[in-house]
Design goal:
- Chain B: This is Leucine rich repeat (LRR) protein.
- Chain A: This is ATP-grasp domain-containing protein.
- The complex is a heterodimer of chains A (386) and B (316).
- By secondary structure, chain A is of the alpha+beta class.
- In chain A, the strands form three sheets. In chain A, strands 10, 11, 12, 13, 14 and 15 form a six-stranded antiparallel β-sheet that branches.
- In chain A, helix 9 (290-297) crosses helix 10.
- Chain A starts with 14 loop residues before the first strand and ends in a 20-residue tail after the last helix.
- Chain A is built from eleven helices and 15 strands.
- The two termini of chain B are 12 Å apart.
- Chain B has helices at residues 46-56, 79-87, 119-124, 161-168, 197-200, 220-228, 248-256, 275-286; strands spanning 9-10, 13-18, 33-36, 64-67, 97-100, 130-134, 151-155, 177-181, 211-215, 238-240, 265-267, 291-293, 301-302, 308-309.
- In chain B, strands 1-2-3-4-5-6-7-8-9-10-11-12 form a twelve-stranded mixed β-sheet. In chain B, strands 13-14 form a two-stranded antiparallel sheet.
- Chain B has two domains: 1-136, Alpha-Beta Horseshoe (Leucine-rich repeat, LRR (right-handed beta-alpha superhelix)), CATH 3.80.10; 141-316, Alpha-Beta Horseshoe (Leucine-rich repeat, LRR (right-handed beta-alpha superhelix)), CATH 3.80.10.10.
- Chain B has 316 residues and is α/β, with parallel strands linked by helices.
- In chain B, helix 6 (220-228) packs parallel to helix 7.
- The chains are: A alpha+beta (386), B alpha/beta (316).
- The interface between A and B is medium-sized, with 29 and 24 residues.
Chain lengths: 386, 316
């Protein structure tokens, strides 16, 4: 049975979603639209946008979802001729160039379609997907972030070690500038002869050289030449190196927070609880209990934490949603934003205080109750200037 | 793991973390244990945090203190917090319980905590009854004589034999609880059963010893036989072999030796026992009224060649 269209939304503008047909994100977003009595979203396949120009329906609100999960799209974005091994870590610099070009095409298509509007600003999405630019923007806006290793970009392991020693920073995170889902992230402790590199990357040595693969098992490399090979290979695509701030723990697990901010408001919060430094849920971490953490922190500090996430998302004022990964200090008093994810809104089963899932929340922000058609992406003044 | 989470309670008191900023210090509130720790998020040196602590907290009444993260442990040596504390021992006349180096794993892996000779803490605080130390790297313990100490614990990923010798050469007539986390030889744990011999032979320097922990051991099974035959065991009411590598072989030896039936409490949690061995231990000790803790069953690490190895719980 089709839900009866919302009376006030009969003339609601169409929604177009750049996404991966058949993927879970589109499925859940479509379900949320149907449940809200909104028209079925028009799908603009990422594969087509990755390959060339696309047409945007006139009058549509255009939403960009993650291009991930489809090897052909990944291949096209990276400009590769041959099929891509979806588990390979390398090539994120080429991916990013292709991603930006695709967003540029999308922006042009939206501009050419009368009345169409993007609910995420392409330039802001591009910054979110560049960890170096993103953290710089946050830092300049006064949002707390882990401190970057001083001295600019790192070219390789030898230089990294030298600068870690020079600045007295034995523990750092090395993150591919354009990676996602912890791909290529290394938690590195190194001092003198001792090295400990914890990562989901599997290092494979072949006659052709070192190859890096994403693996669902987090492992630790302790031989210096392994850590060197790993970091050198990652540096080829550009990395951000930042201080490893100790994380809080709850019930014997290391935790951080994923906070989804929609239209300026922190709406969905997930506690990620791990047995090691890498807290991504697909790498073995579990969802912790937000109520327990909130009780441990106290309501005031909990609000402060969410406010930090909202300030981080506020650095992207023309973008409907941002998923902020928030570090909490062991004493539960200090917060730092370690990532802002452009596509971190796949949070099945997590509801806002009003009972909406992450997609219903976005639709709620896109379609204020009355009158339909007025898009409210900027509910308040931005807290920082880009 | 025990070093994942900061203690919420120490020496029976709730723990507050000192920052000197957002939490007002209750002047006449109920007694608490304070944790003094750098906030590595800001990077304020430990010495400055400690100085503010002395200014803002009435340390004259303080009975329990935790020295937490004192900075990146390879950058800031344990001598810094130790020196600050011993120099100002006069400010802590009521101090009875001290935890020195409560770094969580996120603040520093246990073997990366650069410890020092911690005996000066006992010399500076003659009325201390409880001392816990975390971190085995560079840990030393010069032999001391201390009349008040009842509880002494070394949490390490590898316990240096030299520190054990210092402990066992000390005169601690009040000592009731001794806890040694032996750890792995790759992380400096070179303590062997021979190093523990003076302890097993009756520990005349510790006439009050009733609770022994040989925890986080690389070969817990090999400890069971020497313990069964030891002069010490009949004096103990608690034996803690948790977090180690206990397997079915060790379990059979525990069941076979009557001496273990006289314990009140036997802690074996964090073990590598089969379900059948767990059942046999439960049944075997139930009749004798020994409280046996058997939780946190662990799986051996499987190498690619098919071999299996058991590791103590806390090493790196």
């Amino acid at each position: 049975m089709n839900p009866r269209p919302h009376p006030g939304r009969a003339a609601a503008p169409a929604i177009a979603v750049v996404g991966v047909p058949g993927g879970r994100r589109l499925e859940l977003f479509g379900a949320a639209a149907r449940a809200a009595g909104l028209p079925e979203p028009v799908v603009l396949p990422w594969r087509e946008l990755a390959a060339g120009p696309v047409a945007v329906p006139p009058g549509a609100l255009v939403r960009v979802d993650s291009p991930g999960g489809e090897p052909e799209t990944e291949r096209l974005l990276r400009g590769l001729k041959r099929p891509l091994d979806p588990h390979r870590v390398e090539g994120t610099a080429a991916w990013y160039a292709g991603f930006r070009a695709a967003l540029h095409r999308l922006a042009a298509a939206a501009a050419a379609a009368p009345g169409a509007r993007l609910v995420q600003d392409p330039a802001e999405l591009a910054v979110m997907c560049d960890k170096r630019a993103c953290q710089q923007r946050l830092g300049e806006a006064g949002v707390p972030v882990p401190p970057a290793l001083p001295g600019g970009p790192v070219s390789g392991y030898a230089e990294l070690r030298r600068r870690m020693a020079e600045h007295g920073r034995p523990r750092v995170f090395v993150k591919p500038a354009h990676g996602s889902s912890a791909s290529g992230v290394v938690a590195l402790t190194a001092w003198g002869e001792r090295v400990r590199a914890t990562t989901s990357v599997e290092l494979v040595r072949t006659p052709a050289g070192v190859e890096l693969y994403n693996n669902l098992r987090v492992r630790t490399y302790t031989r210096p030449h392994d850590a060197a090979a790993l970091v050198d290979a990652l540096c080829a695509d550009g990395v951000r190196v930042e201080g490893w701030l100790p994380k809080a723990s709850l019930d014997g697990r290391t935790i951080d927070l994923r906070v989804l901010v929609v239209a300026g408001r922190a709406t969905h919060t997930v506690v990620r609880a791990a047995t090691g430094p890498i807290t991504n849920l697909h790498l073995g971490a579990e969802r912790g209990d937000p109520a327990r953490l909130r009780a441990a922190m106290g309501a005031g500090r909990w609000r402060s934490a969410l406010a930090v996430a909202e300030r981080a998302a506020g650095c992207f004022p023309a973008t409907l949603h941002a998923a902020v990964d928030l570090l909490v200090s062991p004493c539960l008093r200090r917060f730092a934003v370690c990532e802002v994810n452009a596509f971190g809104d796949l949070l099945p089963g997590v509801l806002s205080p009003e009972g909406r899932d992450s997609y219903a929340e976005q639709l709620h922000a896109m379609y204020p109750s009355a009158p339909p058609g007025a898009l409210q992406v900027r509910p308040r003044e931005p807290v920082c200037t880009p | 793991m025990p070093n994942y989470t900061h203690l919420a309670e120490f020496a029976g008191l709730p723990v507050l973390t000192f920052t000197g900023e957002d939490d007002p210090v209750p002047p006449d509130g109920p007694p608490v244990a304070w944790r003094v720790s750098t906030l590595s998020y800001e990077g304020e040196p430990f010495a400055e945090v400690f100085a503010r602590f002395l200014e803002e907290v009435d340390t004259a009444r303080l009975t329990a203190l935790i020295i937490g993260c004192w900075g990146f442990s390879y950058d800031v040596h344990a001598d810094v917090p130790l020196g600050l504390l011993t120099d100002r021992a006069d400010r802590f006349p009521a101090l009875r319980s001290l935890f020195f180096g409560e770094f969580t794993q996120e603040e520093a892996e246990i073997s990366w905590i650069n410890q020092t000779d911690v005996s000066p803490l006992l010399t500076a605080f003659p009325e201390l009854t409880r001392l816990r130390v975390r971190g085995g790297t560079a840990l030393r313990f010069s032999p001391v004589e201390h009349a008040s100490l009842r509880h002494l614990a070394f949490e390490t990923g590898g316990l240096p034999a030299e520190a054990v010798h210092g402990v066992l050469e000390s005169r601690l007539p009040g000592l009731e609880h001794l806890e040694l986390w032996l750890g792995d030889e790759n992380y400096g744990g070179d303590t062997t059963i021979d190093d523990l011999r003076p302890l097993l032979d009756g520990a005349p320097s510790f006439p009050g010893l009733r609770e022994l922990g040989l925890r986080n051991a690389p070969d817990t099974d090999a400890l069971v036989g020497p313990l069964a035959d030891s002069a010490l065991l009949p004096r103990l009411h608690t034996l803690d072999l948790s977090l180690g590598t206990l397997g079915d072989g060790g379990a059979e030896r525990l069941l076979a030796a009557p001496a273990f039936r006289a314990l009140r409490r036997l802690d074996l949690h964090g073990q590598y026992l089969s379900a059948a061995a767990v059942e046999r231990l439960r049944a075997g000790f139930a009749d004798s009224g020994v409280a046996v803790e058997l939780g946190d069953q662990r799986e051996p690490y499987k190498w690619r060649d098919g071999s299996e190895r058991r590791y103590p719980s806390v090493t790196e």
